[in-house]
């Protein structure tokens, strides 16, 4: 029992010593922290002076002066040009006046305007137009019949038929846009009709009385074997 009591007392004493030592060290630390001088610098804003960019202002002033000088020089140049133009205009006016006076003295005669007579268009009746149209188309048909060639191979095979050819004739009489409006059963006859108009290629100009610059014409070409 005595041994247990002595053990407890010794443990209690050791704890008490540690506790006291720990408390003393904390107090010293607090004193050290409290006693440290606070190094804080205060800056007064009133004493701080912000320097303005003086160099930039000087450069801006120089640029403004240059621009002003350029504008002034332009105005002066324009005024000088206007003065020169006015002087030249006055000189021309004086010269023209002198010339007019001299011409009126030397040439007192009055010049008359020459009026050209207007062309009188002839009035053509409908009957006359039809006559002119029919004559032109008959000449064209006769030319096609004279130039027409019956293919020998088609004759041998006794191929017959009618081909209607369409084409445009210009004011000068040239053929354009040649095509088949209505073809026959036989390719040889169709080909012969197209070759016929391509070989002719030109005819008489369209008569002025008809008043046409272009004229689309359709002409039938008959291929028949005549028996003797």
From TrEMBL:
Q: For this UniProt entry, what is the primary localization, expressed as one broad class?
A: membrane
Q: A Gene Ontology MF term for this entry? A: energy transducer activity
Q: Which NCBIfam families match?
A: tonB_Cterm (TIGR01352)
**Would you identify the family this protein belongs to, as annotated?**
Belongs to the TonB family.
InterPro entries the UniProt entry points to: TonB-dependent_transducer (IPR051045), TonB/TolA_C (IPR006260), TonB_C (IPR037682)
PANTHER family xref list: PROTEIN TONB, PROTEIN TONB-RELATED
Q: Which domain of life is it from?
A: Bacteria
Compartment(s) of residence: Cell inner membrane
Gene3D superfamilies to which the protein is assigned, alphabetical = 3.30.1150.10
What is this protein identified as? Energy transducer TonB
GO BP term (any one): protein transport
Keywords, A to Z?
A: Cell inner membrane, Cell membrane, Membrane, Protein transport, Transmembrane, Transmembrane helix, Transport
Ranges where the TonB C-terminal domain occurs: 135-228
| GO terms for cellular component | plasma membrane protein complex
Q: How does it sit in the membrane?
A: Single-pass membrane protein
């Amino acid at each position: 029992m005595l041994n247990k009591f002595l053990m407890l007392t010794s443990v209690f004493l050791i704890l008490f010593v540690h506790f006291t030592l720990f408390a003393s060290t904390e107090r010293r630390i607090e004193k050290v922290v409290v006693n440290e001088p606070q190094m804080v610098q205060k800056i007064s804003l009133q004493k701080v002076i912000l320097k303005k960019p003086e160099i930039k202002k000087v450069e801006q002033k120089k640029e403004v002066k240059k621009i002003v000088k350029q504008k002034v020089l332009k105005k002066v140049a324009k005024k000088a040009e206007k003065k020169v133009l006015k002087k030249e205009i006055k000189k021309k006016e004086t010269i023209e006046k002198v010339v007019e006076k001299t011409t009126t003295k030397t040439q007192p005669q009055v010049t008359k305007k020459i009026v050209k007579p207007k062309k009188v268009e002839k009035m053509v009746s409908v009957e006359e137009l039809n006559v002119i149209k029919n004559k032109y188309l008959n000449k064209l048909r006769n030319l096609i019949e004279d130039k027409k060639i019956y293919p020998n191979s088609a004759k041998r095979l006794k191929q017959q038929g009618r081909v209607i050819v369409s084409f445009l004739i210009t004011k000068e009489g040239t053929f354009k846009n040649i095509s088949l409006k209505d073809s026959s059963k036989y390719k040889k006859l169709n080909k012969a009709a197209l070759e016929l108009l391509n070989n002719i290629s030109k005819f008489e100009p369209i008569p002025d009385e008809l008043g046409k610059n272009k004229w689309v014409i359709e002409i039938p070409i008959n291929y028949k074997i005549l028996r003797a």
